[in-house]
Structure formats: C-alpha cells, structure tokens
Write a structure and sequence with these properties.
This protein has 315 residues and is α/β, with parallel strands linked by helices. It contains eleven helices and 13 strands. β9, α6 and β10 form a beta-alpha-beta unit.
C-alpha cells in the first residue's frame, strides 16, 4: 500500500475510487489476490484498525458485512467506497451460494463482522468452510478482538483460556452449561448482555463457588472499565446497582488445584437439593462442579438416592 500527501485519486475501471484517507494521509489501495479475505475491524475505537485491513477493504470487489449500517460508518470514516453486501444469520444460507459463485469467478471479497474478528459469534464460519471446500483461497487480516482485549486487562491467567460465547438465557440451562465448563483448566471467556449480567453472575457463583472474575465493559472506548472480584461480590454489586451500560466480556478464573472434601451427608444433601431443580443428569453435573467431586461418583450416588426415594414412596 503506497501513501501520498496530495496525489489525485485515480478512477479504476469499475468507477470506484482507489484511494482513501488513513491517519491524515491519502492511501492508495493496491490490488489484492482473488479469494475470501477475513478482515478484523475495531471493537469500539475506530483507530484500532490495521493499514492492511484498510487496504484490503478498499481493494476488494465487495465487503460482506453483518449490519451494513454499522459497517458503512467505518468505511465512510476512512473514505472507502467499496460496495457493501449484507451477510448475516438470517440470509446466510441464501447468500452463500451466490458469494461462492462470485469467488469462483475470481473476485476478491472481504468478510467483516460488526466489530472485532469475524467467525467469533457470527455466521462467517460456514462461508469460510464452503470457500475452502470449493478450493477458494481464504486469507486472514488479523486485528482487534474483544476476547484478547479482555484477557489482557482482566488480571486472570492467560496461558490457557476457553471462549464460550453467550451462555443459555434460562437459568436452569445456564447452570447446567456452567457445570459442564467447571472443570476446564483455563480462564473462561464469556459474552453477556448487560441486562442478564447479574443473573449470570449469580448462577456462576452457585455452580462454581467464589472464583475470581472480571467484568470488562466498553473495551477500547472512552468509558472502558474493568471490575474485578469474586463471583458473589460481583453479583451483589450488579444486583444492587443495576445493569451496566455497553458491551460486556466476562472472565472467570480456572478451578483451584484443591477440590473440597465432603462427607457423605453433605454430599447427599447437595444432590437432593439439585434433584429438586434439575434432571438427574444436570443435577449430577451441577453438584460435581460445585463440590469438585468426580461427576461419575456424584451421578452414581444420585441414581441411588433417586431409587431410594421411589422405593420409600411405594411403602
């Protein structure tokens, strides 16, 4: 990509300007290879975009965007006039064959999401899969990511992490899923809506106990903030103060090295309490996660208690 202070903007054959303004300089979009280009875009601060990403967006035949209204603002900010095509979960199945056909004809298409790196919680995965299956080159232009930005400032272990995305909406299903994640030996990275944040923190504490956590809000934006603390402390804060404003990334510390040792009576009480709320399978997962006991052992004991309860009811 070449930069010039005052060169006139040439008009390519298609009529689309081949220059754009980046960081006060006029940048000339150099040709890019045919294929699908997966381009990361800012997650809040428009300056968090790479020069390579700008060049790719300017040189592509079209930009595939989740929400063209959001992406139009980004392109307009940098003077990029590349045509936008809506590609989202509601039209993805219809659009993919058309996009693959264009790629097979030798076009260069840029895939972006509303914010951050595509394929993280968006429908880009299937398009990439279809392109690879068709022998079409796929190129990554990496950049901003809410997952990595949160890990950097969260203060929790970063050597291992697991990205879960959004947890289920309903509490029962959410706790069951949390129980399945409980034993993962790395920091959990979750997306959550502001209005469900307090409920999710309560459920996380109920299943995982007082693990350390961090709530990263409005990352890279002017009002960025990170609140750190144990899950129960964070839950109490947001229950008292109400939902925060903005986009949320939630981090939860990995399990400790030592699991608590329970006597049989306490374990039975926890299993019985869980069986009143969940199915046998989910109850075993929840109790195993909460207590650190082997799930197989908890499940076997839950079967015994269920059989005892049924037998007692028939007498």
């Amino acid at each position: 990509m070449a930069y010039h202070e005052a060169d006139p903007a040439p008009e390519p054959a298609g009529g689309r300007p081949s220059t754009f303004v980046a960081f006060g300089l006029r940048a000339e979009a150099e040709p890019i290879a045919p294929g699908l280009h997966v381009v990361a875009t800012p997650i809040g601060n428009l300056r968090d975009i790479t020069l390579r990403a700008l060049g790719t967006l300017a040189a592509a035949n079209a930009v595939l965007a989740e929400d063209t209204r959001v992406s139009r603002n980004l392109l307009a900010h940098y003077g990029i006039a590349t045509p936008l095509i809506a590609y989202h979960e509601h039209n993805a199945a219809l659009m993919r064959p058309q996009l693959i056909a264009r790629l097979q004809k030798g076009e260069a298409l840029a895939l972006i999401s509303d914010a951050g790196t595509p394929l993280v919680s968006d429908p880009g995965f299937k398009l990439v899969g279809d392109a690879l299956a068709a022998g079409i080159p796929v190129t990554s232009a990496p950049g901003a990511s809410a997952v990595l930005a949160a890990l950097v400032v969260g203060g929790l272990p970063t050597d291992r992490f697991f990205f879960e995305g959004f947890l289920p909406v309903k509490s029962g299903a959410r706790r069951a899923r949390i129980a399945e994640l409980a034993a993962i030996p790395g920091t959990l990275v979750l997306f959550e809506s502001a209005r469900r944040l307090a409920e999710s923190l309560v459920d996380l504490h109920a299943v995982l106990g007082p693990r350390e956590a961090a709530v990263a809000r409005e990352l890279t934006k002017h009002f960025e903030s990170v609140r750190r603390g144990a899950l129960d402390v964070l839950a109490a804060h947001y229950e008292l103060n109400g939902p925060p404003k903005g986009e949320i990334v939630l981090l939860v510390a990995p399990p400790g090295a030592d699991a608590p040792v329970l006597d049989g009576v306490l374990l039975d009480d926890k299993i019985r309490a869980a069986l009143e709320k969940f199915s046998l399978k989910d109850a075993a997962s929840v109790v195993a996660a909460e207590t650190g006991q082997p799930r197989r052992q908890v499940y076997a004991r839950a079967l015994e208690l269920t059989a005892e309860a049924k037998g007692g009811g028939q007498k």
